[in-house]
Amino acid sequence: MKSTLLVSILGALSACSGTHDGQACLSVPADQTTCPPARSLSIKDLYSEESCGSEVVALKGEGKRRLTGQAQTEACCYPAEVTDTDKGCVVGRPYWEGGELRQASLLASVAASPATDSARAAAWALAGSGEHASVAAFARLSLQLMALGAPSALLGEVHQAALEEVKHAEQCWELSRLFGGGAEIVAGPFPFQGSLASRIGLAELAADAVRDGCLAETLGAHVLSVAAEHAPEPAVRAVLQSMAEEEARHAVLSFRLVAWALQSGDAEVIASVRAAFAAPWPRVDVQELSLRSNVDVACLAAAAEWGIAEVLSPAAARLLAA
Predict the structure, then answer these.
(1) Domains and CATH numbers, the chain
(2) 184-209: per-residue pLDDT in tens?
């Protein structure tokens, strides 16, 4: 079964090339054993399994009974021609400057209670610092995209991602307070050294998006979703689930951004994207995430390997084949 994240990425990439083959489904009662003939159905009564505003254009065959979606709904699904309308589409992204990762220093108040789990508190605080840096990364990306004439839809999604990263930082720091006995965490001044509006070419921007978005954010979003599924504490589980869902949208955004760059650019852009995918792929620090989530490290390591094989690899192949 394809992961929901992979389906979203493939749907976003398909949207860049018009209509494509997909599945159109019709919800049916559990006791209905046969599917209606395709010719008897109206397109408006069918829904696409894909995300990002996919719409059914035409049916291409007869239906079969199956369960669909996370809720495992009874449905009849038909081979169909599907198009993406780009409605409703939008893990942290690091901030690089001068070849170095930059984050703001953190300031903490005196703990309100001696009952602390200092290791987990520190891990959540540092995770929040990384999410805080992602705000700067997306802010800079929006200016770089504007300088390159990117579509306004991409700009809107980048700004939405920045707002979500603000929330992620606050969520991480709230858990740091929880495990740190009430110590307040705030970020100090961010250590910018260059201009936020520094201009780069389309080839460099696309390669950066591959590294930090298509690869790192995508894998991170998948492993976060597994951590959320297995986290034993409700407060931690809720934060991980919220972050995983929004980081997944950021991952899809990265694939759409690179697809736009490939369509808009020249041979240099294509070569840069291929080189970025050919470089060593990033890995998730499963030890650190295990500490924060209280999920067994072996479970997270297995999730990371599955994500590389079943999400990253097919998504990268689809993008490069476009």
Answers:
(1) 4-84 (no CATH), 96-321 (1.20.1260)
(2) 888 888 888 876 666 789 999 999 99
